Amino acid sequence: MSPNLDPPDHGLRLTTSRLLDVWRLQRRLTALALLYALMYSALSLAIPLLIARTIDDSILHDERPLAPQLAIVAVLAAVRSTVNFLRRYATARVGVGVEASMRELLYGAYLRFPRAFYDLHPTGQVVSRATNDLYPVRYFIGWGMVQGAQSIMMILGTAVVLGVTNLKLAALSAIPLPLIGLVAWRFAHLVTPISRDVQARKGDVTESADEAVVGIEMVQAFGREDDVQDRFAQRADAVRTEVLRQARVESHHLPGLFYLPSASVAVVLLVGGRAVIHGTLTYGEFALFIQLLLQLVWPLESTGWIINLGQRALASAGRSFAWLDEVPVLPERPDPARMAEGDTGVELRGVRFAYPGAAEAVLDGVDLTVAPGEVVAVCGATGAGKSTLLGLLPRFYDPDAGAVLLGGHDLRDLALDDVRGAVGVVTQRPILFSETLRDNLLAGRPDADDAALHEACDVAGVTAFLDDLPDRWQTLIGERGVNLSGGQRQRVALARALLTDAPVLVLDDPLSAVDTTTEDRIVTRLRSALEGRAVLLATQRLSTLALADRIVVLDDGVVVESGTQAQLLERGGTFAELFGEDASVAA
User: Fold this and answer.
1) What is the topology classification, in CATH, of domain 12-326?
2) What is the mean pLDDT of residues 217-225?
3) What's the pTM?
């Protein structure tokens, strides 16, 4: 059964549980933020109480000096302002910390996900889940959750104070609260699926932008600017459509959440005002009700914002945690076997492989052995399965049937780090980083000395163009090696692989972009550099095949021929059909 590389988003309960697991890493700072929220709520209740007493005792009846009362109010207000600042700073740090933790989890998972995952998911979607999807999480954790807790503290504290002051008036002022709860519940129910759609459409926009930037040469070369612009506009319009859909739900519900708290103030003005007139409620108590209810307007109004933000955060986190929890990494044994020191050979036994979701196998029953010190070339028409076969050796994929052996051990029995350390790879499209030339060359072996570095670069032909670079070894070669030609990128990738000193080398058309004169020089030097290594080489160039001790021909994923170049040409089979004309010209 194929692994599930595109799992559905997590539901509300599972997402909440996983988000709390990450949030617990910030529990001390969160506890401090909640303490500040409690202090802020307590001060917000104490100040109106003090003002009420000042009105009744110092202004109306002159029972207490006014100045000290006002001074205390001013000091408490200043303290509350400071506490509010500290609470906001603490919650901001919590939000940023949770966002950073989730981003690190995703990035770590991205480095472990199998290649099949990246065959399925566009780069833009992958990037979006580690960027756009985490912003709502940060804002909700960094503001919404503690603000919600503070709002609950204020509501409960206000209810107690008002109930003790005048139970009847407190009960009347609470009439709108059930309606607020009903509107908030309905709002959350409607906005949740829309929030998920918004995040998905934002991922599509990121994907479209990424494709345009990465493929800008082809876009401009074929005059596809308008087509790419139209595609981006369509995806941007899809985001606009979903955001407007969300805005419609917000416009139908948020005004109600904003209006209903004010209704409580209206009730107090009507009923409380009459009570003051009839002498059953003091001016100070009346002012206390008004102040506390006005302070409750924002906590009650913020309920809608918090719910909205919470739904966005849960939708975003649900997408991210689905990948973290459900996408399987390549399995490793808890007690992996260890390869013996020394020469290491490669063997494929009855290997069958099909890409996830594909109806037909790319490789079917492939048997192949590469001994230490032997160079075996894999040839075949386009789509025959050459690159797929080579991708099995560094364990980018696991075969569906059969086994790939390294040093006599099934790759699945070895530690993945040991496999990757034993297999040097040059891919069909060399990947270079936006770093210096030297850093790119040392990527596989950072501790290599200058002598080994220069030797590998001499063999691969890097030193031939070194003096043409503005800063030689310290030249920044740009993203994906954009400042180098295609042939130069291939030579850097080949030197990097040679420098690793890995006992097994996988070379996927390593010199396809190199001119024939340079290729001849590199091939001549490579013969000695490859001594003692097991090398599997895929190429469509007859000149590169001169490196091979033996040639294996693939046709529709099956080995149909094997032998030396001369033997295969003499047989007149598939190999001769592919290279016979070139061989005649070369002769």
Assistant:
1) ABC transporter transmembrane region fold (1.20.1560)
2) 68
3) 0.76
